[in-house]
User: Fold this.
Amino acid sequence: MINLTWKLYEGMQHKWKERAQKEKDTVRTRYRGGNSGILMEDGTAVGECPKKALARYLGKYTDPDYDTQLMFDVGELNEDRWEDYLTRAGVDVKKADDAIKWHTDAGTPVTGSPDALIYEDGKPVMGIEHKHASSMNTARGVIGGEPQLKHLIQTAHYSMALDDLPFTLLYTSSTNIEGAEWKMKDANIPKPGQPRSEFCEYTYYKYTGQTRTYKTGKNKGKTIHLKQKVMTNFLEDSDLSPGEIMKKYDADFADLKYFRPFAIEFPTTWKEDTFYFYNGAKWIKTIITKDRIKAFYNELDRMQAAKDLGPVPYNLKPDGEPMPWPHENYCEMCQMSEKLNHKYDDWVNHLELEGDKG
Ligand code: SF4
Assistant:
């Protein structure tokens, strides 16, 4: 018998080798659209980390590990299935490898590959930036009507580089997603009947009319209204929306059980060089502007010229509100510059050695 799981890993290693070779061939030739960020007027970086974007330019490339590759694969398969379904539906859609190219003020090329372009009469009329949502955090934001800022920045970048071509940021999830209880009670999760509640599976409850007052423990003295679970009819209710189920059973409230697989699109547009997205109800203004995208890439040139490691990035929401987790939660590269005492030349030399291993 052929050991298939081992063959999977062997095949992956071939893929990594090919990719690493491609990376080597493009060292110090271009900044990448996949590293899109914005630089605010006060020098704050948002979205991508300038150090990571510069490291990629300088040849720092690490193979993904086995788990990460399996996740990347789902993203690629998702793009293929969209192309297949849209084509079957009569849409002229194609992948758009290296479709964008522009230059920073200092003349460094910036290139990128939007996931897909849609054509009419041979001309591109719309772009798609695909994201496959597999985590609770992403699903919670998307179903709550809020795409991730870094995804919006990448979408805005591609649209800007293609003469403001309208782009849609398209999230697809292929599995039921549930998470920690506090995440399931997030205020942004739609209630039955609200937009995108059709992607939520709920448990429905009714109050019994009785109360209970705690006599002991930390809730001593607290009175609660007793509730009972509503027994819905799975077969009869399968065509009903969550709002209709609430009405049918006269339920008082519902708790999220899990998110169903979904496809949710966020159309985007530019208004006076500021980027907006449509959340299903209204257009939302973001902190993304064309100048800030260009400033981010100009900053990479400045960092090299000044031998400076640049600003740390901030995690923000699309409207500029801070996110609760810091950049270093998802990246360990800085620990390397800590080790090298923030000396630019040492950092670059170290990166080149690392890159050579790729
Ligand atoms: S830890 Fe933060 S500042 Fe350092 S390289 Fe990673 S993202 Fe950038």
Remarks:
- The first helix runs from residue 4 to 25.
